[in-house]
Structures are given as C-alpha cells and as structure tokens.
Amino acid sequence: MRWPSAWVDPALLGLLEGTPFNCLAMEWSAALGPVVSKARAMNLSVVAIGKDSARAAGVGAGLTAPPDNLLLAADSVWPGITPVNGAELSGPTANPWIDSNGWYLRLAKVQSPEKTVWLMFEPPAPPRVTVLDAYLRAIADTGTWGGRWAVSVDADLRGDLPRGDAKALATWKAIAAAVAFFEKRRVWSLLQPLGVVGVVSDFAGPNKTASEEILNLLGRRSLAYRILEKSAAPTASLAGFQALIAVDAGAPAPPLRRKLLAFVQQGGLVMAGAGWKPADGKPAGVDHPRVDVRKLGKGRLAISKAEEPDPFMIARDVHMLMGRTYDVARFFNLSAFLSYCSATVDQTQEAVQIVSFAGRPGDDVATAWVPGKCTSARLFSLGSEDPKPLEMVSENGGTSLFLPAVPVYAGLELSRA
Predict the structure, then answer these.
(1) Which of 64, 186, 287, 328 has the greatest count of CB atoms below 10 A from its CB?
(2) C-alpha angle 154/141/380, rounded to 5°?
(3) Nearest Cα residue to 384 out of 211, 227, 184
(4) What DSSP state is assigned to residue 140?
(5) DSSP-derived pairing of the beta strands 330-332 and 299-304
C-alpha cells in the first residue's frame, strides 16, 4: 500500500495484520524512520517512491529502489464516471464518460510482458467523498486487467483509521478483502484476451494519442479487441480476427500492407488510414460519411476520408460495419460498465469479468450471453468467499447466463467441452 506520510506511529502497521499487503510504498521523511524499522521487523518491504529527488533520498536512507521488473504508472486515473459540472453522468449511453485503466494495463502487458504493472493513482481530493464502492471499483478495475494498485487512502481514512473509527476500520477491512480476492485469482491474468477486432499501431509519436484512445473507446463499447504492435504484425497470426484497425499516420510499410491485403482477400475487414494509397479494390456501393468502403476478394477495405479520423467514430464504425455476429459476449440490463473476456489457449476455460460504474440498485438483475455451449458457469463476487453456480439457458446459438445485481464487479468462470 501507499503509506501516508502523516502516519509516523509504528503502531499503525497493525492495520496490515491479516491483510495481503506485504510492501509499503513510501515518500521518505526522517519522521518515518521508526515505521520503516518496525516494518522490516514484520518482514514487510519498503520501497521509495515520489519524484526523482524524493526517491533518491529514500534510497539513500536505506529504502529499496523500485525493482526493474516493475512498471510504476503514475499517470493512471481514478476509475469512475467522470463528473461534468459537478454531476456524474450515467444511464444507457453513459459509457463514453467512464475513466478506466483497463486499456492501459492491456497495452502495458503487450509492450512490457516481463514487467508487473503497478498503478499509482490516488482517490479524488475533497470536496468529493470516496465511498467504499469507489475503492472496490478502483481495485476491480485494476485487478480485472491483471494489474496491481498501490492502495492509497483518502483524507478521511487517513484521519479516521488512526483514531480507530469503526466505520473507517470496516471500510479498510473491505478494501483488504477485495485486494485479496484478486490476488487469489491471479491465474485469470494469465489467460489470453478474446477479441475479433485487432488494433494495429506503434502506439508512439504522432499515433500515440489516437491509438490509445481507440483502445479506450473499444472497451467502452464492450467490443472485445486484441492488440497487435505494428512491428510484429507482419509475422503475427491473424487467426480469429474478423476486423483490423490500422489507422496510423502515413502509408503502412510494404510487409504490413501485404499482410493486411491478404487478410481482406480472405474475408476480413480492415479500417485503414487516409495514407492508404492507392485505394485497392472496387467501390462497395456504400455511401458512408467517414470511410470509403471497397470490396477486395471476400472482404472489405474501409479507408478513412479524414487525415486525422475521430477515434470515437472509428470504434463505432468498425462495430457497425462488422455487425454483432462475432460478438465474444453480450450484456443486457447493464449500463455504464466495462467487460473483459479471456480464455485458455484451447478455450475450454473462459473468464468473463464485468466492472460496473453505474451504482445500480441492489435488486437489479442482468444477463450475459456468450456464443457456443457452456458445461458449467460459476459467479465470483466481491465480499463472497465461495463462487455460486449460475443458471444457464441455451439460446440464439449461445448460452445465456443469469446474474444477480452487479453493484461493482462480477467474475464469471465458464467451462466448455
């Protein structure tokens, strides 16, 4: 956890007893010396964080420097629905206002597969009040996509926990239990992401902002995607993809262009940037306001008409052009949520995770639909030690799974023949 600088009493380390926390991330000050000494006696690690000078001072005082196999992400966001003019927007179309680190964690896993990603965001400052569900959502948003959060408590908990306030202690216990929940299910982070849409980019330079926002917006549409770094794409397997988004500035290099054209010839859809010239194929007879849709072999090539296409419209258009036939999952009676679907290589075991940002009433029920047949399905919920079997019904070429209310998080573990 991120140890508050004001907590200079070593007795406060008792809060960590019986919790999964085994490391303190600390901005060093001499007043914290007794805390560091007791933490080491409790076999806790103490890592120096902060700006370069503060981190160096901590290391100089004997704290541990962040290991090379950690990726500390200080620019991550507090997960939640973005307030607009003081109000949180929610409802059937609220997903565009969701702040999440899921896309960042997925990209980091592709770009730095050997590193564990630690997110360093903090709760909102007053006058916003951070309730328990907000903490649980922050933990779920991180754990669902395989990251870890250096848990940081807000001003109220920083003041109330040292005084032994009962409500604060109950909140702290629930926070620790949620962290433990995802640590126990860390194996889910080893599963392979499912997705029929691939995003091809170098995610750098002039392409960084747009390509990252495309990932963000695809997630908000619950459109399952996979990431292909441009340098590896020419030799990567495209098995399972139905559409590829390749809208980086300029023309694709010849090897990548040939790969994408072969994908289209075999029946795929490619969303290409305006730099794709000359335009291959023949006009498809589609009067589209943003892309020139062309037929090529069994597939289609959709070339952007704008030099800098809107990422929001790219995410929307690829979904519209591809249709819902190849959905990895569909969800009903849920709003303002994100989902993540992953599976073993042979796809006999699958995880479908849902993070709700809407704060829906506790009596709402929801349904998840997945293609194909499931032999069993179990529901994992925060605050519950044991999974519960889910009712399943075969319909529409797939399996409908009936869920209880999802106030913050639901993890579905599916088995297939």
Answers:
(1) 328
(2) 115
(3) 184
(4) H
(5) unpaired
Task: Please name which of 184, 195, 135, 179 lies closest in space to residue 340, comparing C-alpha atoms.
Answer: 195
Say how far apart CA 76 and CA 100 lie, in whole Å: 8
Question: Two tokens at 78?
Answer: 């507090």
Q: Are strands 299-304 and 269-272 parallel, antiparallel or unpaired?
A: parallel
CATH number of 330-415: 2.60.40.1180
Q: Enter the pTM of the model.
A: 0.94
Structure tokens at 106: 């997925």
Say how far apart CA 343 and CA 274 lie, in whole Å: 35
Q: In terms of C-beta density within 10 A (0-12 exposed, 13-18 middle, 19 or more buried), how is residue 325 classed?
A: exposed
Question: What gap in Å lies between CA 310 and CA 299, rounded to an integer?
Answer: 23
Q: Whole-angstrom Cα distance, residue 406 to residue 327?
A: 21
- Tell me if residue 215 falls in helix, strand or coil: helix
> Tokens 């920083």 correspond to what residue?
158
Q: What percent of the chain shows pLDDT beyond 90?
A: 87
Residues 6+ apart with CB under 8 A from 234: 253, 255, 256, 258, 259
Domain limits, the chain? 10-189, 195-322, 330-415
Q: Which of 32, 68, 55, 49 shows the shortest CA–CA distance to 150?
A: 49
| Fold match between domain 195-322 and domain 330-415 | no
Instruction: Give yes or no for residue 317 having a pLDDT over 90.
Output: yes
What is the token pair recorded at 81? 């629905």
For 189, the enclosing helix (H) or strand (E) is none
Q: Which amino acid is at 392?
A: M
Rounded CA separation 312/266 (Å): 27
Going by pLDDT thresholds of 50, 70 and 90, the confidence category of residue 360 is: low
Prior bond to 278 cis, omega within 30?
yes
Query: Is residue 96's pLDDT more than 60?
Result: no
Residue type, 222: S
- The pLDDT score that the predictor gives to residue 90 is 45
> How far separated are the first and last CA of the chain, in Å rounded?
41
At the second CATH level, the architecture of 195-322 is 3-Layer(aba) Sandwich (3.40)
Phi-psi region of 202 (alpha: psi -120 to 50; beta: other; left: phi over 0): alpha
**Quick check: 47 and 65 in contact, CB under 8 A?**
yes
Q: Match 């042979």 to its residue by tokens.
A: 346
The helix (H) or strand (E) run that includes residue 400 is strand 398-403
